[in-house]
Write a structure and sequence with these properties.
- The chain is α+β, with helices and mostly antiparallel strands and 231 residues long.
- It is 29% helix and 32% strand.
- The strands form four sheets. It has a three-stranded antiparallel sheet, with no helix packed on it.
Length: 231
């Protein structure tokens, strides 16, 4: 079968969901939904060129997504298992297994290369309800750039007021060996110490952590590691 690659996801096809909530800020995770998978399958293989099938194996729900191989006149299948959601568990497992199987076909695989997305508390509307923190903001992908090898190289997230709350730009190739982990470690240290990203980047004269060069990152990490954990 001649290799057919699905296109990359567009910004408006990616959902932002809240991961962790702390007093100092939140993390965001990137997702795609099943409707996006269906649309890309239709675009790539045609509406009659793919099919899905669900089966229970060992008590877990699996989805098989097959695409038609015109050269060999046969179906090529990818399979994965789903997990139940808190709401409508069976439907959630069916949708999740379908989306995972589509990732095996390459659809949305770039989401797994997303950087750590951290939004500090001073950019959020956080309330407490029933002893739980609730974030009133909604988030969406403002822009995204994906390389030919399906790696996110630039990303911007905005809230419902069209304010940019997160920006990321991949470092130059000569720095790429260690910088991704350094950026993640910087965000972890910011969360641990309670220092805001705005204070840090202002100190180094840049607009975001992604714009910090290797020397800046190393100095910032060294300083943060000497800072006590926030109460």
């Amino acid at each position: 079968m001649e290799e057919i690659e699905s296109r990359e996801l567009k910004a408006d096809e990616i959902e932002c969901r809240i991961g962790a909530i702390t007093d100092r800020g939140i993390t965001l995770l990137l997702y795609k939904n099943a409707r996006v998978d269906q649309a890309i399958l239709d675009e790539t293989f045609g509406i009659f060129g793919w099919q899905r099938h669900h089966t229970v194996i060992g008590g877990s729900l699996y989805c098989s997504v097959s695409v038609w191989d015109e050269e060999h006149q046969d179906w090529i299948m990818k399979q994965d298992v789903g997990s139940e959601s808190d709401y409508e568990k069976e439907k959630g497992a069916a949708s999740d297994s379908f989306k995972r199987a589509c990732v095996n076909l390459g659809i949305g695989r770039e989401l797994y290369t997303a950087p750590l997305i951290w939004v500090s508390a001073d950019r959020l509307q956080i309330q407490e309800r029933d002893h739980k923190k609730i974030v009133k903001d909604r988030f969406s992908v403002k822009s995204i750039n994906i390389s030919e090898d399906k790696v996110i190289t630039a990303l911007a997230i905005e809230n419902q007021r069209r304010e940019t709350v997160f920006e990321y730009k991949a470092p130059a190739k000569e720095e790429a060996g260690t910088s991704d982990e350094e950026v993640r470690e910087l965000y972890r240290e910011l969360e641990r110490t309670g220092v805001s990203e705005q204070i840090l980047v202002k100190r180094y004269g840049v607009r975001s952590i992604a714009e910090m060069n290797a020397v800046m990152r190393k100095r910032a990490l060294a300083g943060l590691k000497k800072t006590a954990t926030a109460a």
